[in-house]
Amino acid sequence: MKKIMLSLIVFLLAFVTACSQESAKPSSSAPATAEKAETKPEGAKPAEKKLPRVAFVYLGVAGDGGWTYEHDQGRLMLEKELGIKATIVENVPEGADAARVFEELAQKNDIVFGTSFGYMDAMVSVAQKYPKVTFLHATGYKTAPNLGTYMGREYQSAYLVGMAAGKMTKNNHLGYVGAFPIPEVIYTINAFTLGAQSVNPNIDVSVVWSNTWFDPATERQAAVSLLDKGVDVLAAYQDSPAGIQAAAERKVWGIGNDSDMGKYAPDFYISNPKWNWGPYYVQVVKEIMEGTWKPGSAYFGSMKEGITTTAPFGKNVPQEVKELVEKKRADIMSGAFDVFQGPIVDQEGKKRFDEGKKMSDEDILNMNWFVQGIKGTVPK
C-alpha cells in the first residue's frame, strides 16, 4: 500500500511540473525575446557622423599678430562651429622638418592644413604616401587627388589700401617691403600700386625684399632703407609690425599686413589687408565630411565671400579718404569693378592687358612682373 501511495505521489508531482513548464513557453504570437521585440522609436535621430581628426601646421606662432594669428582665429571658429578639437604644430620651418611633421600628422589625422607657401613640395610628397588623408595647402599651386589649395583675393583689399595711401602721401613716394618674390606678394604689390595710381597718377612705389615672413630685425632694416629714401607712406607684407613701427618713429604713415596692426603705430597707421580664414575652414571641413569636396580643388575666395577684407582705418585717416575707399569697396563687392582689368602696363612700358580685358586667375596666380610706376625688380 505504501508503494502504491508513493508511486501516485511521484506521478502527480511529474504531472504538475510538466504543466508548469508548458505554461512558461512563449506563445507563437508573442516575441521570443525582449531583444527581438525592440523597435526603433518613431522619429529617432540617425547616428551622428564621426568627427574628422584635423591638424594645422603653422610657420610661426599663433601670437605673431599677423598671418599665423589669423589662421589660428580660423581654427578656433572651426572648432566652435563643428565641435572639432584640432591639433596645431607651431614654428615649423619650410624644408625637411616640414615633411617630417606632415608625415607624423598624416598617421593620426584625417585632414591636415599647411599654412605656408614653402610647405608645398613637402605636402605633395606626403600626400602621395597617405592617399586616405586630405591635405589642404594655403597659397600653393600644386594639387593632387587628396591635396587641394586655398587662397583669397587679397589683391582686392590691397587695392583699397593703396587708394588710401595715394590720398595720404604728400610727396608721391611710397615704399613697400616685400616678403618673398612669389606671385601672391607680387600681385598684392601691383594691386596696391594700381589703387594708389587710381587716385594719384603721379605716385611711384619703391620695393625692397626682406626674404622673410617673420624676422622683425631684418624687416625693420628693410623698412629703414626705404625711409632713408624719403618715402612718406610705407607698406610691408611681413607678419611682424616692425615696418610700420619704424615708419611711425619717422612720423611716416604705415600700412601693415594680414591682421589689424593699428595698435602698433596708432598715430601713423592707415590700414592694411586683413584675412578671415574661419568661413573657409568651416566650409571645406563640412564638404569633406559630407563627401562633396572635389579632389584636388583650388579655392580662390573673394572679398565678397569674406575671406579677405581691410583692417579698420587708423584714427587719423580723414573721413573723405574713408568714404572714397568704401565707395570702391562696394563696386568690388558687387562685381562692378575688377582690380586687374586693362589697360595694364608693366614697369618696362609693355602693355600686358588691353583696355577692358580682365586677367584670368591663371594670369594672376602666375604673375612675375611689376606694373608701371614700381621702382624695384622681381628676382629671377
UniProtKB/TrEMBL annotation:
Record has Flavoprotein as a keyword: no
Residues covered by region (Disordered): 24-47
Low complexity bias: start-end ranges: 24-34
Keyword Signal tagged: yes
Domain named ABC transporter substrate-binding protein PnrA-like: residues: 53-329
Listed GO CC annotations: plasma membrane
Protein keywords: Signal
Protein name as catalogued: BMP family ABC transporter substrate-binding protein
